[in-house]
Amino acid sequence: GNAFAQEAITNGAAYAVIDDVQYKASDKFILVDDVLQTLQQLATYHRLNSKAKIIALTGSNGKTTTKELIAGVLSQKHQIIATKGNLNNHIGVPLTLLTIKENTEIAIVEMGANHQKEISILCQLAQPDYGYITNFGKAHLEGFGGIEGVIKGKSELYEYLVANGKHIFLNGDDPIQSEKLQYYIKKIGFSQNEGSYYHIKFKGAAPFVHIQVEDLYINTQLIGAYNFSNCAAAILMGTYFNVELPDIKIALEEFVPENNRSQILEKNGYTIVLDAYNANPTSMKAALEAFNRMPGQRKTVLLADMYELGESARVEHQNLAELVEKMHFDTCFLIGENFHKTHTTCATFSSFEALADRLKKSPLEKGTLLIKGSRGMAMERILDLL
After folding, report:
1. DSSP states of 270-328
2. Strand 130-133 to strand 106-110: parallel, antiparallel, or no bridges (unpaired)?
3. pLDDT at position 147
4. Are residues 75 and 176 in the same domain?
5. Residues 162 and 233 in one domain
6. Under a CB-based contact definition with an 8 Å cutoff, are residues 209 and 228 in contact?
7. Structural domain count, the chain
8. Could you read off the pLDDT of 307-347 as tens digits, one per residue?
9. What is residue 62's predicted lDDT score, i.e. its pLDDT?
């Protein structure tokens, strides 16, 4: 980064912060011991001098979609800022905090991690007033060392909030969340079951998620039952921060997913469920179940490798291959080195290029497609072959 400091000044930056003295060309260059540490300290200082309430958001699946839904709902009444894209790491979180303005009332800060202690560090930077964990799933198993490591790592958000007496939003139907917060008083939850939590009903997803809150019906543009809890979290926070239910309905019904996340597209006679932003065993299973229930002509699934699974990779890919077989789709293609090694009746391809060669010679029959895989597989490239 130091090498680009002069270019930044030339292009109009007032100052550049550097940590290598050889790049200090004038008084416009501020020399520090560590640029990253300075960025983080500056962000925390800025956050502590703001009146904005900070909502921290983490989880294995659905973080970015949930963040966008919450932002849409809360912006109906409040001045908000939210993490741009998925800038959710040790650099992205400080950059998000620095976008807080004087009139910002609520900041929604997404936190990502693939190792333990990372969420804890991000909490020290952001010092959130509220928190929500979307779920605990089989993501980044390699870095976390298994599902127990995932639960421990994501729960660092709970640990910070409990230690500091802050409020926690929770999905009351998630047994792990309920168990972890069983004895904590400052919790605000939603549930499909009537009881101590805010009652939000899932009315189906064929394919779009339908919800009932009190006497209000919300018809979203999100597919898959897995998106219900993401919507419910936004509803819960909206009601907590005094957004009127009709305004919550408007925000949720207007939201359209982007960036290869659960998008429904039409192209050349194909109806395409494009969910190619990322994948792990939990999200893959949820996507398959949703696609299986979805009405459609001639269903084809194109699934690509799931990354960062470590020693679990072989078993998890085999499990997914067997699940696909049980669902009896019309056609199934499994792509990538891991899927290629599975024992399956599905067609397997060692690489995207191998699949592309096949599709050029023998195009897919018109119908409904599910396209999903890890970011590194970039499965959205299939669109160019249809």
Report:
1. EEEEEE-S---HHHHHHHHHHHHHS--SSEEEEEEPPPS-GGGHHHHHHHHHHHHHHHT
2. unpaired
3. 83
4. yes
5. yes
6. yes
7. 3
8. 999 999 999 999 999 999 999 899 999 999 999 999 999 99
9. 87
Contacts of 48 (CB under 8 A, 6+ apart): 127
Q: According to the model, what pLDDT value does residue 148 have?
A: 86
The pLDDT tens digits for 146-165 are 888 888 888 999 999 999 99
Q: Are strands 208-213 and 216-223 parallel, antiparallel or unpaired?
A: antiparallel
Distances 172 to 175, 204, 284, 302 between C-alpha atoms, Å? 7, 19, 23, 34
Range in 5-9, 122-126, 351-355 the model is least confident about:
5-9
160: left (phi over 0), alpha (psi -120 to 50) or beta: alpha
Is the domain of 214 the same as that of 309?
A: no
State pLDDT tens for residues 79-129: 999 999 889 999 999 999 999 999 999 999 999 988 889 999 999 999 999
Q: Give the structural domain span for 349.
A: 263-385
Cα distance between residue 47 and residue 3, in whole Å: 29
Q: What is the CATH number of the domain that holds 368?
A: 3.90.190.20
β-strand pairing of 270-275 with 263-267: antiparallel
Is 90 exceeded by the pLDDT of residue 221?
A: yes
CATH number at residue 194: 3.40.1190.10
Phi and psi angles of residue 157, each rounded to the nearest 5 degrees, phi first: -65, -45
Q: Is 355 helix (H, G, I), strand (E, B) or coil?
A: helix
Q: Rounded to whole angstroms, how far apart are CA atoms 76 and 243? A: 7
Handedness of CA 183, 186, 191, 196 (dihedral sign): positive
**Tokens standing for residue 239:** 């009601």
| pLDDT of amino acid 66 | 96
pLDDT 10s digits, 226-251:
999 999 999 999 999 999 999 999 99
Q: Are 48 and 27 members of one domain?
A: no
Residues 76 and 127: their CA atoms lie apart, in Å, by 25
Number of helical H runs and strand E runs in the chain:
15, 17
> DSSP label at 200?
E
d(CA 172, CA 131): 14
DSSP for residue 385: G
Cα distance between residue 275 and residue 277, in whole Å: 6
Q: Is the pLDDT of residue 295 over 90?
A: no
Same domain, 7 and 133: no
